[in-house]
Amino acid sequence: MEALAGWNVEDKPSWPRVVAAALILLVLLAAPALFFRAGVEKPSPVALVVDGEEVEALALATGGSVDEVLARLKEAGATGVGLYELTLADLAERRPFFVATKATLEAARSPVAARLPDSLPGGAWLLGWNDPLEPWLEASLSAHLSSVGERLHAPGYDGAIWLLDPEVRLDAVGVGFDLDEADAIRRAGLEVVLRPRDDARAAEALSILLSQIETVKPLAVVFSGGAVTGYPWFMDEVAGALRTTGTPLGLIEFTVQRGADYLAKAVGYRVLRVHSIAPHELGEGFSREAALDRWLRAARERRATLLYVRMPSGAAEDAGGENDFSSAGAPGRFEAYLAYVAELARRLGAAGFSLGAPVPIEPPPLYWPGVAAAVAGVAAAGGLLGSELWGRRSGWPWLVAAASVGAFGLLWLKGYTVLARQGAALGAALVFPVLSVHIACGRAASAGAPAPSHALARGLASFGAAAAVTLAGAVLLTALLGDVRFLVKVEEFRGVKAAHLLPPLAVAAIWARPHLRRRSWREWLGAPLQVRDVLLALAAAALLAVYLLRTGNDGLPVPAVEDALRRALEETFVARPRTKEFLLGHPALVAGLALRAQGESKLSGALLALGSIGQVSILNTFAHAHTPLLLSALRTGYGLILGLPLGAAAFFFLNYLRSFAPRRAGTPAAGRVSE
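and the corresponding structure tokens:
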């Protein structure tokens, strides 16, 4: 922020000083929002939850009991079990239920066949039972089966027989939770995580399911399938049951479930972030070591406090080739799974996490002055940048700034508070990287220091000014996204691609503008096209494509060398610094500013455009509101510490090449490169 206060305005209007001072005051006014957010980002225990269906499969495959499997998993470090609803397919495998066609019953000479109506076709599927059931199960079956079949009247038969719809899938109809299984989980000293299914059900059937949630009082409810239970008509009833019991809603990362956002809002955003690795991922070249790193990253960087640890399906082994999940025989795979859970628990403990019942994040208070100051600060920065680029006496940048403030207010008053915050945050991400480089470039160019050591000192000081401006933007952006909806990632920063692409392009355009003005657009369009120009354009397009694809979670794969570097950085630092900052952006900006201090224009301009990527990355780090604020600050600090010496080395290397190149061409060495 000192960079703003020290704006060089000799022989120019003095009002930019006033704007710069106002911007500093707005940043200070918004800063308390960081403390409010840090106050709710308290460390939470992490739950290691295993899958209930896999527990049953392990017990069956190893010849042990479910209680024995649960005991072994608890000993390894598991703290909970995901319990699914029973389905009609599950009941078909249990006594006293049967599922069969009428023809099958007749062929088996079942006494039930004689009780069936003669008009019933032989291929009709029937579900029946004759022993008394638990009251909840009988009521639940009656409520669920009424939507997928009809009850038959069978004179002389004491049980119940239902004619099923021929299109129904037995494994897709949930009928509630087995309370005996929930009791067995609790006897093992583990928490219950309920996994309701997403099949549609009538109000009566839903009320039975919700009463079970109130009875079990689970650690959390994590819906399975593509929608939450009750979607779309009965979500208020589901939310009421969760609020009554105080049960958190589990939101699975990278999974879209219809109705989840509405339900999260209805429960007051009392939610837990859930991370899981699908079983097939560990069987498709995803190593055990990489999986363990991913679990830690989810807990540390994305506040995932419920880790749903599925059993890998195939060949996933550690770096030493041990604990191979493809080991022959179920006992070997079970032991490998136990070792996997135990190692995850150990690494979580080593990273400072305790195992237990996670605590949902509390919504931070709405800090009105901070939000207002952040919006005004972004608008002021945008107006300041526009007036610097298009003339300080030009009024249209300030008209745009005023209009943006008005648009924010209108959206907010209309109830579109998330959209208003997202728009202002995108504005900060677009404006501040360009403004920071512009200010730093002006400070560096005013020095006129020919000696390399003096130029580097000026370049480092100018880089500090750029970083100060960027961090001021990060404060405003953090204040804008300091809402619980962003902290739990029900909502998130929008415009990631634009925020990564437009600022570097803007810096490049500013650098190129004086050179482009030497010829008219008509001359440019009429110039002959050379192969060199085509190749340069294709290369630039390819680099931009790679740069953009690397900004998402599902973009280009990370090369093995970079992956190894990332893992080394994660093991060395509390928060891994971003490679695009300390290996590219910061070194390029330091070198570019130092070259600009020596009077060099062309090469420094290209380096400044590359250097803006580092400033973009800093703001992008703070745009991840679901990442703890302290971690974002540490990541940024590490990037600066590592990037500055690399920038100094890059400057001396480039300075050496600049002095060497003219001598090779047979001309005297020059202290600066001509524009």
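(Above: one complete record from the training split.) The longest helix spans residues 629-664.
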